[in-house]
Design brief:
single chain; mainly beta; nine-stranded antiparallel β-sheet
Amino acid sequence: PGQNDRIEILRSDSVPVIENHGQGCHIRILSPPENAGQHEVYDIRFDPGGALRSQAHSRGTREQLTVVRGAVTVTSGSATEVLETGDTARYAADLPHAIASQDGEAQVFLIVQSG
């Protein structure tokens, strides 16, 4: 079979995890390593009171976040919005930004696109 005739699988227990970034958040890296710095995909789970605060990424970087479960507060620069399950936010990530659980546990799907 050719290169296109295959499906690459990452089983749940094999997905790379970042545990020491943020407070009370558990980050699973879903995108391939060769996409780092260009197009990154994350599954982030927040404990109650959990938050992920980030410094500005490279110029033109944008993030797209969809809430899978719970509610989160998203801040980008001086703008702040509360999102609930099913909501999506698109915002600049080339300035300080943050995601924080609103009232309890939360889970988001995050795409980071470099500019």
